[in-house]
UniProtKB/TrEMBL annotation:
Keywords associated with the record: Isomerase, tRNA processing
Species of origin: Chitinophaga silvatica
Family statement: Belongs to the tRNA pseudouridine synthase TruA family.
Reaction(s) catalysed (UniProt annotation): uridine(38/39/40) in tRNA = pseudouridine(38/39/40) in tRNA
Pfam family, one: PseudoU_synth_1
EC class name: isomerase
Chain residues that bind substrate: Y109
Residue ranges annotated for the Pseudouridine synthase I TruA alpha/beta domain, each copy included: 149-242
Name by which UniProt lists this protein: tRNA pseudouridine synthase A
EC number from the UniProt entry: 5.4.99.12
Active site feature: D52 (nucleophile)
Protein purpose: Formation of pseudouridine at positions 38, 39 and 40 in the anticodon stem and loop of transfer RNAs.
GO biological process: tRNA pseudouridine synthesis
Length: 253
C-alpha cells in the first residue's frame, strides 16, 4: 500500500470547516469525493490541520493510501473534479507510516484586519475601522510567546488531551491599511488563533491592560477570552514538515 501526502488550498466561505462532518459541506469531503471518483475506489483521507467554518488556507495537507497507480495527469484531473474554491497543488510520496497530522512540526497562521472600507477584502479580512495602539498589540503578541498553556484560548467541547502549545513566532505587521497577526506553533487548539486575536484587540483598543492580558492567559478560563472576530480574516498559511519527508511527484498537465 502506497501512502501519499496531498497539498491543497481553499477558500473557506462556503464550507462548514475542513474536517469531514455528518450532514455538513466540508473541504475534506470534497477532496475524498474527488479522489474516490478518479481512482474508482473509496478513499478516506486524514487531514493535517482542522480549520473552522469560513477559515481559508493557502496550504493544508491530507494523506491517503492506495495500491492503485496515479493517473499521469492526476493533479489536472483531480482539479477538474474539485469545486472552484478548492485546488490541489501538490502530491508527495512519503513513508507508509508518515501521518500528515502528527508528522507536522509546526503550522503558520495569519489573521488580517483592514482599517479602510474595501469591497475586495470582504471575504479575506476583518473590517476594523477603529484606532488601535500597535505598540500594545505588539507587546501582547510578544507576551504570548512566554506562555505554553493556552486553555483560555480553546473553545469548549474540544477533545484534546493537553492545552500546551509551543509558540515559535507571534507578531503583528502593518502594511498600509492592513494589520496582520502572524503566529507559528507546533499545534493550535480549537478557535485558538481567533481567540488570541480578539483578546489582543481589546488590548489594542485600551480595554485591557497588558497585566490584565497576562491575567486572562493565566486564568485558564475561556469565558475571559474574546473569540468574536469573524473567520474570513484567518488563513492557514503553511504546514511545516521535517526536511526530506516529502518527495514531490511530477505529473503532466
Amino acid at each position: 500500500m502506497n501512502r501519499y501526502f496531498i497539498e491543497v488550498a481553499y477558500k473557506g466561505a462556503r464550507f462548514s470547516g475542513f474536517q469531514v462532518q455528518e450532514n455538513a459541506h466540508t473541504v475534506q469531503a470534497e477532496v475524498d469525493r474527488a479522489l474516490s471518483t478518479l481512482l474508482r475506489d473509496t478513499i478516506v483521507s486524514t487531514g493535517s490541520s482542522r480549520t473552522d467554518a469560513g477559515v481559508n488556507a493557502y496550504q493544508n495537507f491530507l494523506h491517503f493510501d492506495t495500491d492503485l497507480p496515479l493517473h499521469p495527469q492526476f493533479i489536472y484531473k483531480i482539479n477538474a473534479i474539485l469545486p472552484d474554491d478548492v485546488v490541489l497543488n501538490g502530491v508527495y510520496a512519503v513513508p507508509p507510516d508518515a501521518n500528515s497530522r502528527f508528522a507536522a512540526v509546526s503550522r503558520s497562521y495569519e489573521y488580517t484586519l483592514y482599517t479602510r472600507k474595501d469591497p475586495f477584502m470582504l471575504d479575506r479580512g476583518y473590517f476594523f475601522p477603529y484606532k488601535i495602539d500597535i505598540d500594545a498589540l505588539q507587546e501582547a503578541a510578544r507576551i504570548i510567546t512566554t506562555y505554553s498553556d493556552f486553555t483560555t484560548f480553546s473553545k469548549r467541547n474540544t477533545q484534546v488531551k493537553t492545552f500546551l502549545c509551543n509558540i515559535m513566532e507571534s507578531y503583528w505587521t502593518v502594511e498600509g491599511q492592513h494589520i496582520t497577526y502572524n503566529v507559528r506553533a507546533n499545534r493550535f487548539l480549537r478557535g485558538m488563533v481567533r481567540g488570541l486575536v480578539g483578546t489582543m484587540l481589546r488590548v489594542g483598543r485600551g480595554k485591557l491592560t497588558l497585566d490584565e492580558f497576562r491575567a486572562v492567559i493565566e486564568s485558564k478560563d475561556c469565558t475571559r477570552a474574546d473569540f468574536a472576530v469573524p473567520p474570513q480574516g484567518l488563513f492557514l498559511m503553511q504546514v511545516h514538515y521535517p526536511e526530506g519527508l516529502l518527495s514531490p511527484i511530477h505529473f503532466s498537465r
